[in-house]
Amino acid sequence: MLRMVAASPLRVALMNDFEVVVRGLHAMLKPFEDRVSVVEIGAGVTVEQSVDVTLYDTFSEPQVDGDDFDGVLESPDPGAVVVYTWHLDPALVEVALAKGCRGYIGKTVSGAELVTALERVASGEVVVEPATSRQPAPEPHSPGDWPGRAEGLSAREAEIIILITQGLTNNDIAVRSYLSINSVKTYIRTAYRKMGVTRRSQAVRWGLEHGLTPDHLRRVADPTTDESQAGA
């Protein structure tokens, strides 16, 4: 359901399967709280509150061309759904918009640009930023936070190790993450060096021991008191 928003701040829900990811997004948006009010943070759950915009971070998640993504759109009242991602392939953008998403935002945008894009979406526009490309967005200055960051993993390396921890093969990971098989193998090699492991079984154990498994969290924020309730 798309609603026209006459006044700020926007009511925004953040979604991803990892608490650290959605909390990182929240921290990115906090400097703009006069324009954006994060009223729900969900890890492994659907949005329950009525919001203007749901921002879906695809970190380690199924891409929009899979059936799993449809659950986001089928939440009771997600407002305008905006995808926030590295994966800027025009085919994915086309699928997202065909399914009813109102925005598709690459992780190369700044926090201020992201907020502006959300405002444009909430006002009725369909927004795709930046111009799409068949190449994934560069990673050197990945925004937000992610599991494994404190241990030295880059966001892409962490995403690959998460999928390994979940039992995916290299080919499965390449399809899921829209990377070439050679890129997947490169990320695995660099991640293994940082983790101090040499075998897949060791990587799985490392992932389990360092929180690289999905969370289950609902955080409902009161914008007037900045208090929250966590639970499912």
UniProtKB/TrEMBL annotation:
The keyword DNA repair does not apply. The modification 4-aspartylphosphate is found at residue 57. The lineage of its organism: Bacteria, Bacillati, Actinomycetota, Actinomycetes, Micrococcales. Residues 146-211 form the HTH luxR-type domain. Pfam families: GerE. The keyword Amino-acid biosynthesis does not apply. InterPro entries: CheY-like_superfamily, Sig_transdc_resp-reg_C-effctor, Sig_transdc_resp-reg_receiver, Tscrpt_reg_LuxR_C, WalR-like. One of its GO terms (molecular function) is DNA binding. Keywords: DNA-binding, Phosphoprotein. This is Putative two-component system response regulator. SMART domains: HTH_LUXR. Residues 11-122 form the Response regulatory domain. Residues 129-150 are annotated as: Disordered. One of its GO terms (biological process) is regulation of DNA-templated transcription. SUPFAM superfamilies: C-terminal effector domain of the bipartite response regulators, CheY-like.
